[in-house]
Design brief:
Blueprint (H helix, E strand, L loop, with lengths): L1 H6 L9 H8 L6 E3 L2 E4 L8 H11 L7 H13 L1 H22 L8 H22 L9
Antiparallel strand pairs: 1-2
Length: 140
């Protein structure tokens, strides 16, 4: 309710989900000079909707959902603050899609997310092995 009271239900003021996430201050910055990335921090924001999304993201640590698994994986790799912001960004994109397309969110579950993640990792490993002239074989 807090998020809807802040943004309303009319999403026509944002052309896409990226613009919406950027308005919330949940998109990474893009300071590049001479092709070198200098910083990719998010801009500081006093947006109440972004604060509510961050609070929702932080509460997903023990959740047995796909977004909870996403949060735990990022938290282990990047640390809690970055994982909270990235998960809040993901929640903002989902919220934008729900409000613009008038669809309900369908939870696929933690196991489905982990299976898809494992498929991505294996595909990337096979691609890297092929680049080096090797073939990846599944151990039995």
């Amino acid at each position: 309710m807090k998020i809807l009271s802040e943004i309303g239900t009319d999403m026509s003021q944002w052309p896409n989900a990226k613009a919406f996430a950027s308005w919330l201050g949940l998109s990474p910055g893009n300071k590049i000079s001479g092709g070198k990335i200098l910083s990719s921090k998010t801009k500081p924001s006093d947006n109440q909707a972004a604060r509510a999304l961050r609070m929702a993201a932080a509460s997903l640590y023990h959740s047995k959902t796909a977004i909870g698994a996403f949060f735990r994986r990022l938290r282990a790799r990047l640390g809690a603050p970055k994982a909270i912001t990235a998960t809040a960004h993901k929640l903002a994109r989902i919220l934008y899609r729900m409000l613009t397309d008038s669809i309900n969110y369908r939870e696929v579950g933690e196991n489905y997310y982990e299976q898809q993640y494992q498929k991505r990792v294996v595909a990337n490993l096979e691609k890297r092995a092929k680049e080096f002239g090797y073939q990846l074989v599944l151990a039995q």
